[in-house]
Amino acid sequence: METGLTYTSEMTVQECHLAMNVGSGDLPVLGTPVMLSLMENAAMNAVKDALNEGETTVGSFISSSHVRPTKQGDTIHAEAVLTAIEGRKLTFKVVASDSKGVIGEGDHIRYIVNIEKFLSKLV
Length: 123
Description:
Structural class: alpha+beta
C-alpha cells in the first residue's frame, strides 16, 4: 500500500438523508452525519483493494467542516486521498462537494484490522 490512493463516493440526497430525519438538525438539508458517512465510505474504498485477505479498515477519527447546505435531490461526491501510513494507521484527506462546490472537508483516520480478530471482541 502507498500514499496517494484515492476514491470518490457519490450519492443523491434523499429525504432519509435530511438533517431533520437523521436526528442532527431540524431543517430539510443534508445531515452532517450522512456527509461524514460518505467520506468514510470513500476512504474505505480507496484502500480496500490494497489489503490482505481477511483484512478491512475501521474508522477511528474524523474531523470535518460542513460549511454549506445541500438540498434534497442534489448529488454529493466525497473524495478521499490516502496521505499517510503509519503501520496499521491510515490517514486521509477528505472533501465533500455538491453541484455548487465544496460543502465540507477534513481529515479521517482508519486502522487496518483482521476481520475475524476484530469481530471476536464482540463476544
